[in-house]
Specification:
By secondary structure, the chain is an alpha/beta fold. It has two domains: 231 residues, ABC-type transport auxiliary lipoprotein component (Rossmann fold, 3-Layer(aba) Sandwich), CATH 3.40.50; 44 residues. The chain has eight helices and seven strands, in the order αααββαβαββββααα. Strands 1, 2, 3, 4, 5, 6 and 7 form a seven-stranded mixed sheet that branches. β4 and β5 form a beta hairpin. α3 runs parallel beside α6, α4 crosses α6 and α7 crosses α8. It is extended.
């Protein structure tokens, strides 16, 4: 009995020691925290030509409008399918556009806290004087925007494409399975003076999940069976997909605004090249002039059709 108790105590001590912070953080599989690397969409956004002048904007929220829960195929999971941090991602994208030269962003997500802190400062300055005995100056006015950026994550479609392949021969086999999801975001720019929706764009991003496994099965005797399995899965982070979708939508918003003369580039030649590159990406064509002509022809046909109906 004593030997059994000592055995359990030793096992418990070993388990507790293996769970110490030292063994966890000195594990080769554990990586140190690091700054997120720039995405491809974020790189395009950061290298945009500078605007004629920064655009003052405000963002109140950018929410998950899908209402979907995470799909794991086994049980009901009440975790949301996409991140709730769309506002923070959008503000970061606005600041990174043109390396913080495209937009002047005023804080509105934590407006209540901001106003509360300003009220504390105002009351303090009213009640106390400065070191020289003079009344302290008032706070400067809050920055306001000329344009409001609205939108949200409107859909997250799971299992848009699923599939796989596998084979087994003489007890040796393997298989590969994949799944593709799709996240879509919408973004619009609204004039604060008139309330008019000036621009509205959308973008979608696929999110891939891939799994592979191999197995080995062999009878060495009637009662002796050896079976082994190995496998791994690779899932693209949903948050990274949402981030790229938002950055792509903002890139599209900026370029559509330049095409429609909502704003202009400081360098006309660089702006023309950026617009041509955008049209190539948007219309999947190598000839932006042909794409522009196609748009004009479509608009002209629509006008002619409307005129005939009248």
């Amino acid at each position: 009995m004593l030997l059994r108790n000592c055995f359990f105590i030793a096992i418990s001590a070993f388990v507790l020691a293996s769970c110490s912070n030292k063994n966890i953080y000195e594990n080769g599989l554990v990586e140190e925290a690091q700054v997120n690397s720039e995405t491809r969409a974020g790189g395009i956004l950061a290298t945009l030509p500078l605007p004629a002048q920064p655009v003052p904007v405000v963002v109140y929220d950018f929410v998950d409008q899908t209402g979907q829960f995470r799909n794991n195929g086994q049980y009901t999971d009440y975790s949301s399918a996409v991140t709730k941090g769309g506002y923070s991602i959008l503000v970061n994208a606005l600041l990174s556009a043109g390396k913080n030269n495209w937009f002047t962003v005023a804080e509105r997500g934590s407006l209540k806290h901001l106003l509360q802190e300003r009220q504390i400062i105002k009351l303090t300055r009213d009640q106390y004087a400065g070191p020289d005995g003079k009344k302290l100056t008032n706070l400067p006015p809050l920055l306001y925007g000329g344009m409001m950026i609205e939108g949200g994550i409107v859909s997250y479609d799971s299992n848009v494409v699923t599939g796989g392949a596998g084979a087994i021969y003489l007890g040796i086999g393997g298989s590969v399975q994949y799944r593709r999801d799709l996240v879509t975001v919408y973004l619009r720019a609204i004039s604060i003076q008139t309330g008019k929706v000036i621009l509205s764009v959308n973008s979608s991003k696929t999110i891939y999940s891939v799994g592979a496994d191999a197995n080995f099965l062999r009878y060495f005797a009637v009662s002796n069976l050896l079976q082994s399995e190995v496998g791994f899965t690779m899932n693209e982070p949903t948050q990274l997909g949402v981030r790229q979708a938002i950055e792509t939508a903002l890139y599209s918003l900026i370029m559509e605004g330049a095409i429609n003369n909502v704003w202009t580039f400081r360098d006309v030649a660089q702006g023309k090249k950026a617009i041509d590159d955008y049209i190539k990406r948007r219309d999947n064509t190598s000839n932006p002039q042909a794409a522009e002509q196609k748009i004009k022809n479509t608009a002209s046909n629509e006008d002619n059709t409307t005129a005939r109906r009248r």
